[in-house]
Amino acid sequence: MARRGCLRVLIADDDDDILRMIQVALMDEQYEFIVAHDGTEAVALARSQRPHLILMDIEMPRCDGFEACRTLRADAQLHDVPIIMLTSRTSEKDILRGFADGAYDYITKPFSLMHLRTRVKTWLLRAGHGENETAAQNDDAVPAAGDSAS
Is residue 129 part of a domain? Predict the structure, then answer.
């Protein structure tokens, strides 16, 4: 269900456990999640839902993350949406290919949930979706007890 004013994050991964883990890791940020299970679905959902950021696995059926990334970069409406590759592929060749295909960042699995949250927030800020914009959209938001900058 879409929440008014929320930043949309598209997560593309064929592993439901990873999809759930990412959503749980980012749920405190109150993002709207769009979920795709393969690259073809990710491209279609990106075109129809216009996410603010995309987390993309590489090894997926039908269309892998590399191809999906290239397709999104060629789309005039989506070419500047930050794409973070989130994958088990750790070779230098794959990392360089990810950046060459248009990824803004590359995180390898297994990953730290804190690292993931930080990278997502950083790329959203760089894309012009700052904390002030989110705070203005959620004026009634109150920090949770125990929140800290640790």
Answer: no
